[in-house]
Input
Amino acid sequence: MKSSPFHNRIADQLDERRAKGLFRSIPPFAASPSNRIDCSTNSYLGLHANEEVGREASRLTGERLSGNCASRLIADHSDLYRQLESEIAQWEGTETALVFTSGYTANLGVIQALCTRSTEVFADRLNHASIFDGIRLSGATLIRYGHCDMAELKKCLQQSTAPEKLIITDTVFSMDGDRAPLCDIADLGRSFGALVMVDEAHATGMFGENGSGLVEATGTAKAIDIRMGTLSKAIAGLGGYVATSVRFRDYFVNFCRSLVYSTGLPHAVLAHNLAAIRYLREHPRLGAAVVKSAALLREAFERIGFSTGPATTQIIPCFVGDERETVALSTWLRAHGVIAPAIRPPAVPKSTSRLRFSWSALCGDEARTTISVHLQQWKSEHV
Ligand SMILES: Cc1ncc(COP(=O)(O)O)c(C=O)c1O
Output
C-alpha cells in the first residue's frame, strides 16, 4: 500500500470504522425473489412497480432515452420539464416550481443561494445531511435546536440579532419517522420575521387531501416560503424540487450553483416523474392508507418489546441500541426473507442503532405477521 499523509489518514479512518463495527459498503446486486418482504426502499406507494405508471412513462418517453446533454440554463432539451414543474405547482398550490437533479442538490443549491454570512439559520438537529451541507456551503451561521423543541427554537430566535433569519426543518424525519410541529414553526416564523423552508422528502405523496405533503395536511401553506421535495421517494423516480413563488424561482435560476452548473435530468426520468405525479393526483389517498397500515406494525413491534420511539408515519425505527447487534438482526432477518437495513452512527446518535422499516403499499397484513413472527423468535433467542 502506498504511504503518504493522505493515504495514512484514509487507511486509519477506514480501520477505525471497521474496529467500531461501523464500516459501510454498498450491497451487491440481488434480484428480488417475489416472496421477499422489502422494507428498505423509499418507494412508499410502490409506484416503481405500478403498471399504469410504467405504461404512461413509456408513452411519454417515446424513443428518447438519452440525457439532457447540457445544463438547463444552456439548453432545455425536454418539454417534459415544463409539464412536470407545472404539474408540481398545481399539486402543491404554489405559483411555480423548479426541478433539480436530486433532493440533495435541491437543498444544497437553494440554501447556498438563499443565505449569506449575515444569515442565521435555525435548523432541527435531526434534519437531513443535505440541509447541513447547504448551510455550511453558504457561510451562514448555523443554530441547531433540539429535535422538535419549540421552546428552544423560540429562545434562539429571541436571542438573534441577525437581519436575515431562516428556519429549516424536515417535515417527516427520515430516521425517526416522526413529524415536525409545522403549525408552531409557522407561528414562530411569523412572529420573528423569519423565512421558513421545509423539506417534504418523506411526506410528499403521503399526507394531505391531495397527497402533496404535511404542509397541505397542516394548513400551513401561507406561512411557509419554500417547500422542497424529492421525486426519488414516494414518486419512485429521481430529482428534487422546490415549490414556491415566481420571485424565488427567478432567484434560484440565477443563483443556485447546483442548478446552473450541472446537467439537467434525462427525458426518460422526467417522464416517469410526470406519470407518477399524475397518477398520485388521481389517487390522492394512497399515502393515508399506508400510514394507517404502518401504525399496526408499530403496535406489533411495541408488543414484542421493540421501541419505535416517536414515529407516527410510514417510517418505523425498531430500536436495538448496540451497533453490532443491530447488524446481526438485520442480517438474520435478511436470511429469513425480510429486508430491513441497519442504521448506525454517524447517521444516528451513538447507542441508538436501529432497523429502519419503510412501510409501503406493497406490504400488507401477511408481511406484518411474518415480520412479527421473526422478531418474536429473535427476541426469545437473544434476551
Ligand atoms: C429529508 C431528506 N431530504 C433530502 C434527501 C435527499 O434526496 P435525494 O435522495 O432525492 O437526493 C433525503 C434523502 O434521503 C432525505 O431523507
Summary: The chain has a mean pLDDT of 95. The CA atoms of residues 59 and 271 lie 8 Å apart. The radius of gyration is 21 Å. Residues 102-104, 107, 128, 130, 170, 174, 199, 201-202, 230, 232, 240 surround pyridoxal-5'-phosphate (CB under 6 Å).
